[in-house]
Design goal:
The structure holds two protein chains of two kinds. By secondary structure, chain A is mainly beta. Helix content of chain A is about 15%, strand content about 35%. In chain B, strands 23, 24, 25, 26, 27, 28, 29 and 30 form an eight-stranded antiparallel beta sheet that branches. In chain B, strands 9-10-11-14-13-12 form a six-stranded antiparallel β-barrel. The two termini of chain B are about 35 Å apart. The chains are: A mainly beta, B alpha+beta.
């Protein structure tokens, strides 16, 4: 992950005043500052970018993870790029749960209402439009670099304080890493720059064309979606043939041990990526098996480190071939080594879907689900909820909750529901300290989703609700009076000023 | 949970002491004398029975288990009791290679040895062979559990001086405390505002001429609070060893939950009062499985009535029900009154010392089991092993090792292994140089044999394997292969290269 500098409010429009003593500079420091100024002086921006680059302001709902009934408002500003007739491209980040999107041209002046016309969170791309004709006057679409991306002459451009800012970017590397908003890996471009707070869809440009869009920054290194990743998606979308991105859901490992190749009976030089885990979901037919060696993908030989030689970008890990000009549902042709023999496998790429994991990776554009039942606050266990423990949730969240992350759903349980807290009330005396317990059953019925809880609470047993939690070192069972639950819930909602007892979007 | 620390006096400064320190010491002594002048009457010279203990210890290395750490010197306090024994803390004498004791105002050191050690309750008994050691010393006797707010005096040799130190305080509270030495047990402990500092450990806490406790730990961040092991725990230890071996404090094998919700009480047909705690779960593999079940309500343990919050009244102090269980010895049965199926019943609950939670606490004196083959070092997973990952071990050890050690037994008892084994490290050699797995990996199978315990590793490597050994790891099914002939040949040389005296400790 890369550090970001979120812009939770508008950027300052003018520099802060300095204390007078700040102006007393040592001559050496002054000389150094002048030298730096010379080096950092923005190169003269190509005038075309002023008519292609627009500024966006997005206001969206954000939620307190453990009090999801209290939405907040959050406003960010980012960049957009005119890419065609009445179309603006930007990254999808911060566009979820949006309530107002506005665009500005020339980096200052009037804001115009805009709307998102297409969006793919996995690809981290979105297309917007503005209805009013006047907005588009004088704006020109930018063009993307097609084919191999240049490593020289790169610049980052953006609107800043009403002026177009352009800074040099030094190419570092192409790499295949986790997507910004998804769990798959794809090609990214890393470049170093003096520009700070990069990551808000600033275009990376070269020779008057777009080479990429910024997605994040760590130190001086900024990450970009390369044009070669973006452009095929936009082309497919334009043609109405974009099914979404596919991915490789299996896990593989490099093999350096000659003895392992001997065990696998592979003759010749060591080669191939060793498959070690193939999840049951998503379903892929035909599929790989553990201990298959992937020798070739779409004609590219795979070495024993799991790399192939990309004609444009050099050595990249095999994961990239799941998104290199291929989409969900398309076939990737593999040569594999299985049970001592080589065979061909037409691997049909499954579609990226946040719900393929036991804990959903993202819950964009859905208000968080919750259910308050007689003071018990129940929520789906998902990664956004775990992020409520902080950026380093893997360390700070209760171990048992975090350990579910990455696990696959099973036939009997497609998700998990967690009791996150208990709102104190006479009805729940004795249970007020219960928290972060994963629900196993309610009134004997297995629970995967909040809607299951709601349905199970319709069927009390002998006048009681019995809630059982997953076996562990914590409380296993609580019992509540079924007849008093509704009145208790009503009382609790009033006392704690909660507008509704539930928000449940997904049916069982 | 509160964090506690034991108080060994580590390497006390003996030379180069500044004059100013001596001045401060003098002031402290004066304060002690002034304080003592207002104390209740004490035995003539209890300090004559208080000894200073010097420990030279060498701890095991849990990552490279054939090794031991550097020799460390520390000191603590002990006191002579009847039977020509010295009582002190287990943590004062853990991993001792040599023990020396010095009597009050006697320059001569005497060699001592550990006769009994109880790491769960942090107590030990030492013996000095030289009978001269006991000449002219009246052994100290034990008294009862003190009352809260009563005065006590601690005797010991805390850091910063060679003379005995006395400090007075009052008993602040009495309740179950986590014993930091073992880390995963809570036993009766007494909090006092008498200063208990490193070096005081093992010293007697005296009231009315009797030892009513053994000083043993402090608590970071809590000022004017020291803790001592009270008489009930000491007596349990002394009763336990009467048969010549120490078993430990038993547990009931159940988890309980407060029964304070009116609906739950009504469901169980119990009166809506403050009596009875509910059995929430019964721990697998314990004797409790045969006599208790979830939703039984424990009304009384022995002579103690049980409150709805799971507490009993013990000697006038309200504390957790576990206290009543800890009065019994390993293998005894406790009389319980329970509520089941709408009526009261009497049952006998056998209580035992848990063998399975040993690896979940700090272990002492017994170095880890291991087996080395072709540079692959196998050892059982334990808390001590995880601690080799450093201070933040719970973050760095990896979820799978943490889950295996602390959670699997509770959550998936059917999949639990008797003694999960890790490949702790790979000693580099040509025969294993191409392994990607370099250690700290949980072992699933070797040559197709599921590894339940260390002996299975040896058996698996000795089983026929078609010219290759295949070692499989959890959780992602990674595996490594090893040429059997080369591995067999390299084995002896690897042991020699790395100075490993034996390929196994079982």
């Amino acid at each position: 992950m890369h550090d970001r500098y979120p812009i939770s409010s508008r950027r300052p429009s003018r520099p802060a005043l300095l204390h007078p003593s700040s102006f007393i500079l040592h001559p050496l420091a002054l000389a150094l500052a002048l030298l730096l100024l010379c080096q950092r002086a923005p190169a003269a921006p190509a005038p075309d970018w002023e008519s292609s680059l627009v500024y966006l302001e997005v206001t969206r709902r954000a939620y307190e993870v453990f009090q999801p009934w209290t939405p907040k408002s959050r406003t960010v500003q980012k960049n957009g790029l005119v890419i065609g007739a009445r179309e603006i491209l930007t990254t999808a980040e911060e566009l979820s749960d949006r309530t107002l999107v506005r665009v500005q041209r020339g980096g200052r002046g009037k804001w115009w209402d805009a709307e998102v016309v297409w969006l793919d969170y996995h690809a981290n791309l979105a297309v917007l439009t503005a209805k009013e004709d006047a907005f588009w006057t004088g704006l020109k679409p930018a063009t993307f670099i097609t084919g191999k991306l240049p490593k020289e002459g790169l610049q980052i451009v953006r609107w800043r304080s009403g002026n177009l800012e352009a800074r040099k970017a030094e190419f570092n590397q192409f790499l295949v890493e986790d997507a910004r908003l998804s769990f798959f890996q794809h090609l990214q471009l890393e470049a170093s720059t003096e520009m700070q707070a990069v990551g808000w869809a600033e275009p990376l440009v070269a020779n008057g064309k777009v080479a990429g869009l910024a997605t994040g920054q760590g130190g001086n290194n900024a990450r970009f979606l390369p044009a070669s990743f973006i452009e095929p998606i936009l082309a497919a979308r334009k043609a109405g043939k974009y099914p979404g991105l596919g991915f490789f859901p299996f896990t593989w490992t490099p093999v350096e041990n000659p003895s392992t190749f001997k065990f696998l009976k592979l003759p010749g030089d060591p080669r191939g990526a060793l498959v070690i885990d193939v999840p049951a979901t998503p379903k892929v037919e035909p599929n790989l098996k553990p201990r298959d060696l992937i020798l070739q993908v779409d004609g590219f030989d795979v070495d024993n480190q799991g790399y192939y030689k990309d004609p444009d970008y050099g050595q990249l890990i095999v994961e990239n071939l799941g998104s290199r000009r291929k989409f969900a549902g398309e076939v990737v042709k593999m040569k594999i080594w299985r049970d001592g023999a080589q065979m061909n496998l037409d691997y049909r790429l499954p579609k990226l879907d946040y719900s393929v994991k036991l804990l959903a990776e993202q819950t964009f554009d859905q208000a968080p689900e919750f259910l308050i039942a007689g003071g018990l606050v129940l929520q789906p266990l998902n990664i956004p909820l775990l992020r409520g423990f902080g950026e380093d949730w893997k360390r700070r969240a209760p171990f048992r909750l975090a350990h579910y992350a990455g696990g696959p759903p099973s036939a009997e349980r497609s998700g998990l529901v967690v009791l996150t807290s208990v709102l104190p009330d006479p009805y729940v005396v004795g249970y007020q300290d219960a928290r972060f317990l994963v629900v196993d059953t309610v009134n004997g019925q297995k629970i995967s989703r909040l809607a299951d809880v709601q349905a199970a609470l319709e069927k009390p047993q002998d006048g009681f609700h019995t809630i059982e939690f997953h076996r562990g070192d914590n409380l296993l069972r609580i019992v509540l009076d079924a007849g008093l639950m509704d009145a208790a819930t009503k009382r609790i909602l009033e006392r704690y000023r909660i507008p509704a007892a539930s928000h449940i979007g997904v049916k069982p | 949970m509160k964090e506690s620390f034991p108080n060994p006096k580590l390497d006390p400064p003996r030379a180069h002491r500044h004059f100013s320190e001596v001045s401060i010491k003098s002031i402290c002594s004066l304060l002690a004398v002034l304080a003592l002048s207002s104390l209740p009457t004490l035995a003539a010279d209890p300090e004559k029975a208080v000894v200073q203990i010097f420990t030279f210890a060498q701890e095991a290395d849990w990552d490279e288990p054939w090794k031991f750490g550097q020799l460390r010197r520390s000191s603590g306090t002990g006191f002579i009791i009847k039977g020509r024994r010295i009582m002190t803390n287990a943590h004062v004498v853990s991993w001792a290679r040599q023990l020396m004791v010095k009597r009050y105002q006697d320059p001569r050191p005497y060699l001592a040895r550990v006769v009994f050690v109880a790491h769960d309750c942090d107590l030990a008994l030492l013996e000095v062979e030289d009978s001269l050691f006991y000449d002219g010393v009246e052994p100290l006797e034990f008294g009862p559990l003190p009352k809260v707010r009563s005065s006590v005096v601690t005797y010991g040799y805390p850091a910063g001086g060679e003379q005995i130190s006395y400090t007075r305080g009052v008993v602040s509270r009495i309740e179950l405390q986590t014993y930091a030495h073992i880390g995963n047990r809570s036993l009766l402990g007494v909090q006092t505002d008498a200063a208990i500092n490193p070096g005081n450990s093992g010293g007697p806490v005296i009231q009315d001429d009797k030892v009513i406790g053994v000083a043993f730990q402090g608590m970071p961040g809590l000022e004017n609070a020291g803790f001592f092991i009270p008489a009930p725990v000491i007596n349990h230890f002394l009763d336990d060893i009467k048969d010549g071996k120490y078993d430990g404090f038993p547990s009931a094998g159940i988890r309980t939950a407060p029964l304070q919700n009116a609906a739950y009480r009504r469901k169980l047909k119990l009166p809506d009062n403050d009596k009875g705690v509910r059995v929430d779960s019964v721990l697998p593999g314990t004797p409790a499985e045969k006599v208790l079940r979830p939703d039984d309500v424990i009304l009384q343990v022995g002579k103690h009535e049980v409150g709805s919050d799971g507490t009993i009244i013990y000697e006038g102090n309200r504390m957790a029900l576990a206290m009543a269980v800890q009065e019994a010895q390993h293998g005894q049965s406790m009389a319980l009154k329970i509520w089941r199926d709408g009526k009261e019943q009497s049952i006998a609950l056998p209580v035992e010392v848990s063998g399975t939670d040993k690896v979940l606490g700090n272990q002492y004196d017994t170095p880890p089991r291991y087996f080395v083959y072709a540079g692959l070092v196998f050892t059982p997973i334990s808390l001590d092993y995880l601690k080799t990952f450093g201070r933040g071990w719970s973050d760095t050890a990896g979820a799978e090792l943490t889950y295996e050690l602390f959670y699997r037994r509770q959550e998936s008892p059917k999949t639990v292994r008797i003694e999960p084994i890790v490949l702790s490290t790979v000693l580099a050699d040509g025969v294993n140089a191409n392994f990607r797995t370099r250690g700290r990996a949980l072992v699933d199978k070797i040559n197709g044999i599921r590894i339940e315990r260390l002996e299975d590793v040896i058996r698996a490597f000795e089983s026929p394997s078609n010219g290759q050994h295949v070692v499989e790891f959890l959780p992602k099914n990674t595996f490594e292969c090893l040429e059997r002939e080369s591995a067999d040949k390299a084995n002896a040389q690897i042991l020699k290269t790395y100075g490993i005296p034996k390929d196994r400790r079982l």
